[in-house]
Amino acid sequence: GRWARMRCGGDSRARRARPAASRSHPLPEASTSMLKAWWPALFALGTVGMMLLIDVTPKELDFPPKLELTGAQAKRVLSSPWFLGVSIPTLIGLVWVRSFAKTNKLSAEETGSMVWWMVNLFWFHTGCDIFSGLLQVQPALTELYFIMSPAHHKPRWHESRAHLDSGYILELLVEVPMAAYVLYLYACRDPARHIAEVFAAAVQLAGTLAYYAPGFARGETHSWLSWADRSCGFVWVLFPAILFRRHILAARAGSGKAKGKKA
Q1: Which segments of the chain does DSSP mark as H helices, in order?
Q2: Contact, 125 vs 182, CB < 8 A?
Q3: Could you count the other beta carbons within 10 Å of the beta carbon of residue 62?
Q4: What is the rounded distance in angstroms from the CA atom of residue 15 to the CA atom of residue 45?
Q5: Per-residue pLDDT tens for 59-104?
Q6: Are 113 and 243 in contact (CB under 8 A)?
Q7: How far apart are CA 226 and CA 99, in angstroms?
Q8: Dmax over Cα atoms in the chain, in whole Å?
Q9: What is the pTM of this model?
């Protein structure tokens, strides 16, 4: 009898100990949430790193690329008004998003959406595509665009680059204003923000496919940088699809709750 009581007591103590042992550690969860929210900013930082470090003087880039470590190219980039004109607003905007998310206790998903639209507004749409592909004034990145797609050497709206310029005009006239509008709706906590976000993301997805499809159809590959560009471009297909699924599920969940209350 004593042995049975000891065994039962030991089992109960083990059962009580299991929940403590199985608790998830807060640090990995915090890191995962931070990555989920801030990966677009890290993505943007990676493109800046390419501008500063990849030597753009060769007309063709071998793999692995030659690094420019003298600092001359980095100085040219960091002192450019075109670079500063988009990078400084991006940094200020990200600081504001962090403060806003903390004050309003936003989820990682909502914070991530705000980060996404902020870096697209100032950096990816404007600093990269419009300044480097369309206007060709962004130092270092313009040369990388030349290597990724040599059609950029042609005059704007030349038949070999018309699909590229169409994408840039779409960004200038639709995607940049929509990114600003979605951010405004998020800042106002407007319930229509998710509808506007899905629309803006759908435009991004469609524009990305139209931008890259002709090169794929013709089998154009000019260097490893072309494939790197297309791999990065796939983000503008994948993330809009993720946003679409997220808001579809949220709408269905909200509808289910409303029906439950009526019942």
Answers
A1: 2-22, 26-53, 72-78, 81-103, 108-119, 141-148, 162-170, 176-188, 193-218, 224-233, 235-262
A2: no
A3: 9
A4: 47
A5: 778 888 999 999 999 999 999 999 999 999 999 999 999 999 999 9
A6: yes
A7: 37
A8: 94
A9: 0.86
